[in-house]
Design goal:
Low-confidence stretches: none
Shape: elongated
Number of domains: 1
Order of helices and strands: HHHH
Mean pLDDT: 87
Radius of gyration: 20 Å
Largest sheet: none
Strand content: under 5%
Number of strands: 0
Distance between the termini: 34 Å
Length: 92
Amino acid sequence: MQKNVGGYDRSARFVLGPLLIILGAAAFGGIITLATGTLGLVLAGVAIVIGAVLVTTAATQKCPLNATIGLNTYRENSTDQSASDETQSSLK
């Protein structure tokens, strides 16, 4: 799978992911209440899973959902490649 997560998309995932993990862990620990009873535990678990997925996709820069819907926010840095190409051509 090619990289398809970058820019603001990646930054948002790195911010929201840990926040959701902390929120879910706090709900499991009883520090905050998302909802009463079993629903609160389910919401806490969902928050942790979604947070973990967001952090993982931000770190790897690969998101299967983005690939499925055809969304690509990743841009390769072309200036680095052109500079290295110029260096290689001048060495020849």
